[in-house]
Amino acid sequence: MDPELIKDCVHCGFCLPTCPTYVLWGEEMDSPRGRIHLMGQHVEGTPVTGEMAGHFDACLGCMACVTACPSGVQYDRLIERTRAVVEKEHVRTPDDRAIRGLVFALFPYRRRLRAMRLPMALSKRLQPFLERVNPSLGAMAELAPPPARPVRLPPVVRARSRRRATVGLLTGCVQGEFFPQVNAATARVLALEGCDVVIPRRQGCCGALSLHAGREAEARKFAKRTIATFERAGVDTVVVNAAGCGSSMKEYAEVLRDDPGWPERAGALRVRDLAEFLIELGPVAERHPLPMSVAYHDACHLAHAQGVRSQPRELLRAIPGLELREIAESAICCGSAGTYNLFQPEPARDLGDRKAERVLATGADLLVSANPGCTMQIAASLRRTGKGEIRVAHTAEVLDASLRGRGGL
After folding, report:
1. The domain spanning residue 27 has which CATH number?
2. DSSP annotation of 330
């Protein structure tokens, strides 16, 4: 934990109304400034106790406090380094170790995740039993989306008009296995906007889940492999359609700060979220009307970590006939936060239910999200409320429907 970064916090409290756990519980130690106080205690010699680790584990890492902070406190780096310390120094319970071992042996590996898609979907019938065995297993069953039809993308998708750029596409782990149609839509949209899209076959995990959980060595391994994969593909710009992955890839130079030569290689890789890239590129393809109302959900690692807020809204507003509606408390996390809804299922459900109520209050026909974790979390929360269903789609899918003149979403 960096004592200089800790000193940046003046404990003003501007972060409190934006912190999801403080909003839920009103406990000082479950706010950003409270956790920074605990970090300071550790730097001064206090060991990581179980109670201290619990407060750090309760943090979603949503970075809303970074957006709210007037002093420029780098809480994102503080919490990531703190979690690495917790993983090294804190002895977890056997149940906690088992669940974490299961999640990190499964989710970053696409073949394993693929093999588990159908069992996870079928486990919904066993959710009450799994919930009694372990709440994290119950959450895993509840969150699992229906099995998706496999989509096999070619190594290169050629521009459908004059070529304006050549980009790589990160297909991701959860995105690639649970929402392959989003990757297909992303490739089509980029091609229609004049891009050659290079899709390396043997992509692995980008390391986002590991990084956010304090598993530093694992995150560095995944980061190096991802950089090398796109270097071999011959692209220097990578388009990402999952907010958590994009925010982590933009931090590769920091993640690999102690590995000689790698920060420079990371810096040569230009990472852009899909919406961010399309706005920078500018539109050329015709937008066909989509007569519907859409509520846009700000994924935390897109809005807070990457500062990408206006670009998705600009893309949606440019579609004829589409009405964009804002969601109340848009800055408050939905409770997904990578693996948070698996390791902290109770507060995650509380936040998910809160978000679902505000989504339904918009009366929109469609909810748009730019992160697979958010999509699963909010969809599960909407089902749990029993107050109504609303389809959830990715920004890429909405754009794809408009560019191809297909109204069905």
Report:
1. 1.10.1060.10
2. T
